[in-house]
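Posted in: Protein Modeling Q&A

I'm a second-year student putting together a small comparison for a lab meeting, and my supervisor asked me to include a predicted structure for Radical SAM protein. I've never done this before, so apologies if this is the wrong subforum. The sequence is pasted below exactly as I got it from our records. If anyone can share the structure token output, I'd also love a short note on what stands out.
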Amino acid sequence: MQSNKTIKGRGAQKNTPNKFLQHIYEMREDFLEFCRHEGEEPESNKTQYIPIFPKTIVNKVDSPDVGMLYSMNPYQGCEHGCIYCYARNTHEYWGYSAGLDFERRILVKKSAPELLEAKIKHKKWVAQTIVLSGNTDCYQPAEQKFEITRKCLEVFLKYRHPVGIITKNAVILRDLDILKELNAHQLVGVNISITSLSEKTRRKLEPRTASIQKKLKTIKVLSENNIPVNAMLAPMIPGINSHELLKLAKAVSEHGALSFGFTVVRLNGAIGQIFSDWIKKAMPDRAEKVLHLIQDCHGGSINDSRFGLRTRGEGKIADQIHDMAKLARQRYFKGRVFPALNHELHEQYKNGQMKLF
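Accepted answer (user: helix_wrangler)
Welcome! Here is the predicted structure, written out as tokens:
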């Protein structure tokens, strides 16, 4: 059983069972009562960093509606704790829960820069944009300690290879020097995720991400340095933040974003359990309404795996969100274009230096 005490600084409020494991771990009520009596915490809320040693780091993305061909993730799990995060389910592959484990047990791939270098130096590799954070945020708090993402960016620069970045953390500005060098060769594009203009909402949805003002400042600083920025206004959750889409689009446009994208929230796998438990604790007055609105966007279910529809949604509510996005593009992004990245330079730099002939 779970304690009713709110776990501060975390999105998920419990660990859900791992579908790949035979046994289920749960805390008995008598143990929780003992902890309350003794004034002790039943478990540590401290983040653990666990080194792992993968054989490869670049992943081919087979899903036809994701918008990228290759991705890489220096970390598995994410301390940001976004309650809606689709990446939570992948933590089960490592033997952990998609709930609190996803936020508290961060798997660290210290060999990522070397694995990346070996991949893009391979004679059969043809340059394609590799996206950092296709799954979990490459600038989550762990990056300040390990600096794996920075080292990977140095590899991309050395070999003049195009790289995309997705993040919701202002720590990316630490690497402005490398980003400017990459951008001088049209080798980098940045996607900044921002889901609300309300700090109260932001803290509930994604407790350990950068503040809204820091996110907007990040967009502005990158844009002032001519680094192309796309804002990810995602996910749109009806009843929580979908009504903000126009204001969000206006704000990111005013801070220099060249484009924006969005998705309609879906709650696949364990995320359905985690989100439902969270919203009943965080927003009890509107929990059932929000869950029903999400169902209305996905044919009566909060779970949707249909390619093409799973991130777009369907029905009247989803149509309203798409209409707002269309209006936002006409009002705030007319004439703006997010540039294509340069795939032509890499072949000349495969040996780490430009060929003369």
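A couple of things worth pointing out for your meeting: The domain at 29-334 is CATH 3.20.20.70 (TIM Barrel). The mean pLDDT is 93.
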